[in-house]
Design goal:
Number of helices: 8
Oligomer: single chain
CATH architecture of the largest domain: 3-Layer(aba) Sandwich
Radius of gyration: 19 Å
Shape: globular
Structural class: alpha/beta
CATH class of the largest domain: Alpha Beta
CATH topology of the largest domain: Rossmann fold
Length: about 300
Amino acid sequence: MSLERKRWVEIGVEAEREAVDDLLGLLSRHCLGGAAMEDLRESPRWARPERVVVKGYLPEGDDETLRKIEIALLLLSRTAAISEPQVRVIEPEDWTEAWKRFFPALPIGERLVVVPTWVEFEVQPGQIPLYLDPGMAFGTGLHATTRLCLIALERLLVPGMTVLDVGTGSGILSIAAARLGADYVDAMDIDPVAAEVAHENAALNKVAERISVSHATLPGRPLSRAPLYEGEPHDLLLINILAEIIIDLAPSLPDYIMPGGACIASGILSEKAAAVQNALQAEGLSVIEQLEEDGWVAIVARRPG
């Protein structure tokens, strides 16, 4: 099944700029098709002073997630200047055009560049392009959580390492790891559609032979119906999900990290960083670095050798 041929539900919320990070975080967490921001600065200042529209995309028929988003937006509207959500269905032929407006080539870190396949981009010496199409699962590099993971990954990955990507989404982190020289990558997601998308993106980037993608999860998520991952420990573990889920999975993480190996945990709001650090340290992992951007945090921790 190809995600590009599905019909999508677009949730659009107009907001003042101080509410953008909260909106992007909320929609990115729940929307399989990702979230993006549309600037309204071309409108007269008296009409829409410094306002933007934040949009998220769900596959049509995911009514349960849509209800969760609507409730979360209602709660957020009590403390933030946001409009009521505008919901519409996007036909498959309109999906690519919807994403093209938001998704330019995006340099990240020292060498990585996330490149939409429709953008003409001349790769410069030393750059490593990561090619993605629209309509893919969360993880385009547009959100701070993914950028922080990519920056930490670029610093930590040594060619020949093995990598475990928990909650792979679009597969962008796995692809980056392979392109940076990982020997092989095991990627997993509790959503079988996301797992399929990650496999398609790996093939698009010609690294599918070094990335194994499965519908799976780690021990510690009793509400998930995904099978448990049964692989071996890896040199580097990536987990870009949510603070609460990272805390739930923390007791199992050391079992999947080689002695002396590291973990990059992201998707963490800054106010929850201390709780995640405490959970990782309680399992014997040593926090060695914390990266921050726009109210989001990525934590790098190491298992003693």
